[in-house]
Automatic annotation (TrEMBL):
Species whose genome carries this gene: Candidozyma pseudohaemuli
InterPro entries found in the cross-reference section: WD40/YVTN_repeat-like_dom_sf (IPR015943), WD40_repeat_CS (IPR019775), WD40_repeat_dom_sf (IPR036322), WD40_rpt (IPR001680), WD_repeat_multifunction (IPR051179)
Protein name: Anaphase-promoting complex subunit 4 WD40 domain-containing protein
WD repeat residue intervals: 128-162, 290-318
Keywords attached to this entry: Proteasome, Repeat, WD repeat
UniProt family annotation: Belongs to the WD repeat PAAF1/RPN14 family.
Chaperone as UniProt keyword: no
GO terms for cellular component: proteasome complex
Highest rank taxon of the organism: Eukaryota
Length: 390
């Protein structure tokens, strides 16, 4: 696969020329093959002031503007989207964004929680030592009033989204090994998490209790690496519901759990049961998202993306990107666009109808993605050094 890197300041350079603040400027582009990353093709793009905006000229690449915040670069023949906002924050491991996109919550390596106003780019609140070790995952509830945090200390905590209090509203303790992923069900009264011990645990927030533990029947110890909750077309019968007093919005929900072995297993949440639906690949399942009731998208440790047809249990599309790195983060923007990372400096998009691939660029050189989140049309990318909105 051809890997593409673009200078961070591209959008600023384009704006300065178009606004007449400078007559010309330039930015650099570099490409390399994933099979031979030591050899680069490098190009300087001259940005000139034209009668209808900036003109782009380059000897080694064809570069054209593609709207207000994107450029087309060939090779590799990708539309590259530039960030609309960037905040420099160090030691970021997790990030969450409220639906208004105004409040940004950050979890750090030291276990602190920080809240930022995205318009002013200023920190508004901080909870120090929210966890005893690094904060691994953050989730905002649909109400935009509650934040869930997961730490390397194997604890899950609930916070007021304003971070006005130094103490959590509730703390959940149960896991003996690292928590790998978490997913809210409906409004969030129930949630599920996966763990390296092979378990997927269903929690109820009101009581703070474990409702059920799901283990794959044929291998209890296969590390569970990721989970996604989806609606099903066939809600279960009320007679099959287990622990109904602790279940909320679960009757029509299933979850798909991805394992180290390469298996994705479906479970019926309300009946606490494993179904017959299973997807098998040759490498570990490292990320999962659902596009709709019929489509599941999986990322694997060998850099492969597979779009699965749930009903047929067969691949609709399969594509290998950079095989040297796993697919570690994925999200879906407005149900049609998949956003994912595939190793350092490779942040990609895929249209789930045409399967055309694009790229998000304009981050600090040699960036390493920690988390990707989406709220409607906004995609938030957290690296160890910055947070950018696309």
């Amino acid at each position: 696969m051809q890997l593409l890197t673009v200078q961070k300041e591209v959008l600023d350079i384009l704006k300065e020329v178009e606004l007449g603040e400078s007559q010309e400027d330039k930015f650099w582009i570099a490409t390399r093959e994933s099979s031979d990353e030591d050899h680069l093709t490098y190009g300087d793009v001259q940005v000139l002031q034209g009668s209808k905006g900036a003109l782009l000229e380059c000897d080694n690449f064809a570069v054209t503007k593609n709207g207000l915040k994107s450029i087309f670069i060939d090779p590799p023949g990708r539309v590259c989207t530039l960030p609309s906002l960037s905040i420099d924050i160090r030691l970021v491991l997790a990030v969450a964004l409220t639906k208004s996109t105004r409040n940004l919550i950050v979890g750090t390596e030291q276990g602190h929680l920080k809240r930022f106003d995205t318009e002013s780019k200023k920190e508004t609140n901080e909870v120090k030592d929210a966890h005893f070790s690094a904060i691994k995952l953050l989730r905002t509830f649909p109400s935009d009033k509650v934040l869930l945090s997961v730490g390397g200390d194997f604890q899950i905590k609930l916070w007021d989204i304003e971070l006005a209090e130094d103490k959590p509203a509730r703390t959940f303790r149960h896991q003996q090994k690292a928590i790998t992923d978490i997913a809210l069900i409906g409004s969030g009264r129930n949630f599920v998490l996966t763990s390296e011990d092979g378990s997927t645990v269903l929690w109820e927030c009101g009581s703070g209790q474990v409702v059920s533990t799901f283990l794959r029947i044929d291998n209890h110890n296969d590390p569970a690496l990721c989970v996604v909750v989806n609606a099903t077309k066939d809600p279960i019968n009320s007679s099959d519901v287990v622990s109904g007093e602790c279940l909320y919005e679960c009757d029509d929900k299933v979850m798909y759990v991805g394992y180290q072995s390469g298996i994705i297993q479906e479970f019926r949440i309300a009946s606490h049961s494993q179904s017959s639906i299973k997807f098998k690949a040759d490498h570990a399942v490292t990320a999962l998202v659902s596009a709709d009731e019929s489509t599941l998208v999986a990322g694997y440790s060998d850099g492969t993306i597979v779009v699965w047809d749930i009903d047929a249990q067969t691949p609709m599309h399969k594509e290998v990107f950079n095989p040297s790195f796993l697919i570690s983060n994925m999200t879906i923007k407005s149900t049609k666009t998949l956003v994912f990372d595939n190793g350092p400096e490779l942040l990609l998009t895929m249209d789930l109808e045409s399967y055309k691939v694009g790229q998000l660029v304009g981050l600090t050189e040699a960036f390493d993605v920690k988390l990707i989140a989406a709220v409607d049309q906004t995609v938030v990318v957290a690296t160890s050094d910055e947070i950018a909105h696309f």
